[in-house]
Amino acid sequence: MKRNIIVWLLLSALVAGNLTACGNKAENPDAGEDYTPGTETEAEGGYTAPSDTYEAEYYTPAGDTSEAEYFAPESDAFETDNYAPASEASDTPYSAVERAGAYEDSYLGSIYDYDPDYDMDVINPGSEEYSDITETGFASVARQPLSTFSADVDTASYSNMRRMIRDGYGIDDFPEDSVRIEELLNYFIYDYNSPKQNEPFGVTTEIAACPWNPETELLMIGLKTQDIDYAEAPASNLVFLLDVSGSMGEADKLPLLQQSFAMLTENLTSKDRVSIVTYAGSDDIVLEGVKGSETQTIKEALYDLSAAGSTHGSAGIITAYELAEDYFIEGGNNRVILATDGDLNVGLTTEDELEELISQKRESGIFLSVLGFGTGNLKDNKMETLADKGNGNYAYIDSERESYKVLVQEMGATLLTVCKDVKLQVEFNPAIVQEYRLIGYENRRMAAEDFKDDTKDAGEIGAGHSVTALYEIKLTEPLTGAAASGLKYAENHQDQSSPAQSEEWLTIGIRYKKPSANTASQLDYPVDYDSYSDNPSQDWEFAAAVAEFGLLASQSSNKGDASLDHVRSLLKEMSLQDEYREEFYELVVQADRND
Question: If you count Cβ atoms within 10 Å of the first and of the last residue's Cβ in the chain, which end, N or C, has fewer?
Answer without folding.
Answer: C
